[in-house]
Amino acid sequence: MRLRLFVIIMAKTICLAQSKGGTSKTSSVLNISACLIQQGYKVLAIDIDMQANLTSGLGVDPTQLERSMYALMTDQATTAADILVHTQEEIDLLPANLDLSIVELAVKEIMGREKILARKIRPLLPHYDFVLIDTPPSFALTTLNALTAADYLLSPVQPEPFCLTGMRNLVHTYDLVRENSNPNLEILGIFITMYDSRLSAHREIAEIIRRDWGDRAFEAVIRRRSNLMDSTAEGRSIIKSRPSSDLAQDYQLLTKEILSRVQKQ
Ligand SMILES: Nc1ncnc2c1ncn2[C@@H]1O[C@H](COP(=O)(O)OP(=O)(O)O)[C@@H](O)[C@H]1O
Ligand SMILES: [Mg+2]
């Protein structure tokens, strides 16, 4: 535990959320975490998506887990330390598996069920600099738990026609969470992913996003590059497997901006 001037330093918790699937949430949690590790920060990644792509992306087999996010969310006696896994990327992980599909039913009767994750991860916060949470592409109870546990909301947006509706849904959910379960939640920003500058539709939508979101849209843009897919399938971040690739550079720039925004606040 790190003490500075007798003040316990708590991790900053960043939740990646977006109502649309396939917008790079999981890839971004993995690669931003890897960039932060490379800069010497201690990082905890949390998978609260029953698809468990982050868990498998970090080389952990979801089908072999004895205890996972489901136990953490539903069993009072299970602590975050009980389910914590150290992964090959030096990123610590609270892993998920398909059991999460019935979590909503299992905690139906519990008062304050949107605050379970926040309560459970609190003892771990002094041990990390950053916590990154990967969420499913919906605003289900799991995502509400993630947003309630977070200091910041970070949203990847793919420059496709329906993304603007997705952003409106996100803002609505953000308002609801602030009103009901986490008044401290801040929007860290949105960033464009899978960008292809050759497509005029991408260029136009990127412009609309920047116009509508101003400062809250990150300068850094994650380009579409198919080699990211190979890397995630290998269970490694692009930062480690292809450090000089365009994508690794994009994620480095994004991480730099994230750090400057978090440190300013
Ligand atoms: N910048 C990118 N370029 C090309 N493919 C990408 C990029 N980012 C993610 N992908 C691929 O797109 C798919 C969806 O990404 P993923 O991170 O799983 O999204 P989400 O978690 O939002 O559903 C995956 O197959 C992933 O490898
Ligand atoms: Mg995902």
Notes on the structure:
By secondary structure, the chain is an alpha/beta fold. The chain has one domain: P-loop containing nucleotide triphosphate hydrolases (Rossmann fold). Helices cover 42% and strands 18% of the residues. It has helices at 25-38, 53-57, 69-74, 80-83, 103-106, 116-121, 141-149, 163-180, 200-213, 227-233, 238-241, 246-264; strands spanning 3-4, 7-8, 12-16, 43-47, 85-86, 92-94, 130-134, 152-157, 186-195, 217-223. The strands form 2 sheets. The protein has an 8-stranded mixed sheet with strand order 5-6-4-7-3-8-9-10, sandwiched between helices. It has a two-stranded antiparallel ribbon with strand order 1-2. α1 crosses α12. It starts with a strand and ends with a helix. Bound molecules: adenosine-5'-diphosphate and magnesium ion. The site of adenosine-5'-diphosphate has 19 residues, from α1, β9 and α10.
Attribute tags:
265 residues, alpha/beta, Rossmann fold, 42% helix, globular, binds adenosine-5'-diphosphate, binds magnesium ion
Level-2 CATH architecture: 3-Layer(aba) Sandwich
Give me the Rg, rounded.
Answer: 18 Å
Say what the CATH topology is. Answer: Rossmann fold
Q: Structural class per helix/strand content?
A: alpha/beta
Q: According to CATH, what is the class?
A: Alpha Beta
- Give the helix level as a range of percent: 40-55%
Order of helices and strands: EEEHEHHHEEHHEHEHEHEHHH
